[in-house]
Structure formats: C-alpha cells, structure tokens
Amino acid sequence: MNELIKMTAQQAVSALKNKQVKPEEMINAALNRIRETDHLINALPTIAEDRAMQHAALLAKQPETNQKRGYLYGLPIAVKDLKDVGGVRTTKGSRAFEHNIPERSDFMVENLEEKGAIVLAKSNTPEFGAGATTFNDVFGRTHNPWNINMTCGGSSGGTAAALASGQVWLGTGSDLGGSLRIPASFCSVVGIRPSPGRIAAGPKDNPFGTLSVDGPMARNVEDLALALDTMAGYNSSDPLSLPAPETPYSESVRNPIVPKRVAYSPDLGISVVHSEVRRVAETSMVHFEEIGSEVTEASIDLSGANDVFHVLRAHQYLGSLGELVRESGDLIKPEVIWNVEQGREQTVERVAAAERARADIFYKTASFFEEYDLLVTPTVIVPPFSVELRYITDVEGVHFEDYISWLVMCSSLSLTACPVISIPCGFTEDGLPVGVQLMAPRGREDLLISAAALFEQSTGLGNTVPIDPR
User: Fold this and answer.
1) Cβ atoms of residues 201 and 173 within 8 Å
2) Which residues does residue 172 pair with via DSSP β-bridges, in sequence order?
3) Is there a contact between 134 and 158 (Cβ–Cβ < 8 Å)?
4) Which of 397, 387, 304 is nearest to 353 (CA)?
5) Is position 410 within any domain?
C-alpha cells in the first residue's frame, strides 16, 4: 500500500500545505489505489481524473494567502453520487439519470472546491439514496472491504468503502434515516449527521426540510473534524444554513472535554437488537468510564418514532420524486415507488399529526439533555450481512414489513434535529465491524466531536483502516 494512502487526512493536508507533496501526486496515489481495489468493492464507479488534474493546476497558480479554516490544499475527495458536480456524470443511482451531466455543482461541492478540495470521484449510492444497502441498476453493488461478501451499508456506502480501503482520505455523504451512520458502522469508519443547517446544500426541492442533511465521512475523528470545518458555514442560498462556529471543530479534538453524564441505551426502548451487536456495544461502554464519564442506562421516550418517520419520509418522497415516478416509474426501483405511493395515500391529517408528534420528540430530547451530556446507542441493529440482500427482513424473531423499519435506531434520532456521529466500537466474533452512535444537543457538534475523540482514543480503533479488501 502506497505510503501516501496510509496518511491520515490531517497528515496529507499538512504535507500538501508544506509542499512536501503536490496535489497531482495525491491524485495519482488515489488513482492507483482505486485501480488496485475497486474491482473488488465497486465504491467509486465514476472517476473525474481530467477535471481533478485541471483543478490541481489551477490551485498551483493561486497566490499564497492566509487560507480559510479547514482549507484542504488540493486533497482529493469523493462526493456521493446524489450530489451534482459540474461537468461530471451524476446518476443518483437511477436509470432515470443514467446519462445526466449537470452544468453546475451543488453548493456543498462548490464550497469544498473553494476551500481546496479536489473532487476525484463520485461514490456509489442506492437509487436516490433510498435504503441502507448500496446497489443500483446503473453501477451494481458496492461490497464491504472487511468482507467482500458483505454489504457496506448505505446509502453513503460507496464513500465508506472507499475510505476503509484507502481510495481517498475524505468523502461526503448524506443522511435521512441513517445513511451516513450505517455505512460508517459497517465499514469501521466515522460519519456524522450534523444539525440541520450546519452544512449548506442545494439547490434542492425542499430547502426548508430538516430530515435529510449532508455530512462528512472520514477514517478517524480528527479527520472528520477537519472535514466538518471545511464544509460548515453560511450560504445565503440555503435558508437553513448556519454560520461556522467561532472555534474550529478540530480544536475539539485537540482539547477535548470529558462528557460527565453519558446515557447508554442498548435499544432506545423501541427496537430488537442482534445479540452480537448488543454485546459489542455494551462492552465498549467501559471506554467512557475509562475517560471519566459516569454511564447510566437511560433513553429519550421515542415511542411512536418509527411511525412518525415513515409518514414524514413518505411526504418528503412525494414532494421530491412524485412527478418523476409519475413520468418515469418504469425506470425506478419498487422501494422508491412504494415510498412515493405511501405519500400519495396518506391524509393531510396524518402528516399534521406526525409533525405534532415530532415536535413532542424534539422537546423531550431538549429536556433529556438538561440531565445528560450525551446519548449513546448501537448504530445498527445487526452486523454487516450478505451483499446479495436488498434489506433485512428478520432479526431475533422480529419481522419487518418494509425496507426501512430495520433502520429505526438511526431514523428515530433523525427526528430530533440533533447531531449524531457513528464511531467504531469493536468487532463481532467473525471480525465484522460494529459501531455506536453518539448524540449531543442540537448545534453542539463541538461536544459531540470532543466525546468521540476521547472514546476513539480509549478504544484504539482510530487506526484500523485503510485495509486491503478481504
């Protein structure tokens, strides 16, 4: 494995900043690694080599200035294939967009490129990000580098697999019901669902929506903090966007604060959890005790959260994909059509009731964080499973009727509008990754990253990737 590939993102950016390595060398190292590994995992199906090299040449001509916070100095990254990159094929994992080449990039991508990131590749995703396994009819399945017979999770599975196998140093994802957190857990990397508005994005059909957010993925917490510093900030074209905090998130890694009161829940009181996941997650709580936290078993009252999420998700799908399904339904997978039809069939009264119930969850969450600094729970109810499966239907004797109900440990926390991070916590007896998700109060990504950094330091799992696919 090339020594450049083994660098953390922080190390790579430092080397780029100090001109110890050129962006073109980093691009070539990544391209070589993609050639070595992607035939096994299919993480980055679209490569933008010429565009990346042109961007590197432009960066070389820029005058030396005091760059913005989180500046990446020519680091190659991967962007999830749901997000437009100007001049680069962007399929959204759908045959309906199989030949789509947008003229303009998403606001998030423009911000990243303005701050020295070089988009080298688009990462694979399920169609329109629907589902927590990464496959589509355009590019096929993405495999887990820890065991290529297993799924990498989804919907940001291509980014997670690329990070775990050392194809790139940083990447982007998005999260509606766990799409950043689930693949992070399955691939033993780190992914954060930020507070809505923390990362500006668009243009999009529902700019006022708060269920779906964009976020970074990385190999460890320090790199994730760097990526969040790069991506966070205000954009006047995003009505929810927030200004970047005065103190960089990287400072939360360098000077972490111990969370005094940690609430741990093995199941949030709402879900079955596979016995191996439960064992690994519960065992890992000793690491919070080792850093000085008091761990108590407790949870927010999330009863009814699964139904609320289903209603609001269907409403969002109808708004964003309803017309496309009407016009091009023969090109779209049945799960997406089902979600849109759920939106068509539900009454206005049901949507209104779901909004009221979500408000109740939000206020309960705010009260919960008056007593606790952090909520911790398993990220996914199962370990990675066969890449051939579209989704999980049965766990520990419990049957799931649809393709999203098994995501309840993540989707219920999406309703709170709080930042949530998935971080590796251990492995099953078969050597498959398990992650826990940490949630902090709304807008307190600094506290979340601080706690995650301390937890990672205690577990010693921050340097488990990159790996050769196996």
Assistant:
1) no
2) 216
3) yes
4) 304
5) yes
Q: What are phi and psi of 352, to 5 degrees?
A: -65, -40
Residue ranges making up the domain that contains 380 = 3-306+348-459
The reported pLDDT for the residue numbered 348 is 97
Which one, of 370, 118, 368, lies nearest residue 230 by Cα? Answer: 118
What residue type is assigned to position 56 of the chain? A
Residue 265 backbone class (left: φ over 0; alpha: ψ -120 to 50; beta: rest): beta
Q: What φ, ψ does residue 237 adopt, rounded to 5°? A: -90, -5
Q: Please give the tally of structural domains in the chain.
A: 1
Query: Hunting for tokens 């709580």 — which residue is that?
Result: 285
Whether 428 has a pLDDT exceeding 80, the answer reads yes
Determine, yes or no, domain membership for 342.
Answer: no
Domain containing residue 71: CATH number: 3.90.1300.10
Can you tell me the distance from the alpha carbon of 172 to that of 351, in angstroms, rounded to the nearest whole number? Answer: 31
Q: Is residue 335 part of a domain?
A: no
**Phi and psi angles of residue 216, each rounded to the nearest 5 degrees, phi first:** -90, 160
- Angle formed at CA 79 by CA 73 and CA 83, multiple of 5 degrees: 125
Pairwise CA distance, residues 340 & 325, whole Å: 8
Let me know if residue 29 belongs to a domain. yes
Q: What is the dihedral of CA 110, 112, 116, 119, to 10 degrees?
A: -80
Q: What is the pLDDT of residues 23-66, one digit of tens each?
A: 999 999 999 999 999 999 999 999 999 999 999 999 998 877 66
Distance between terminal CA atoms of the chain?
14
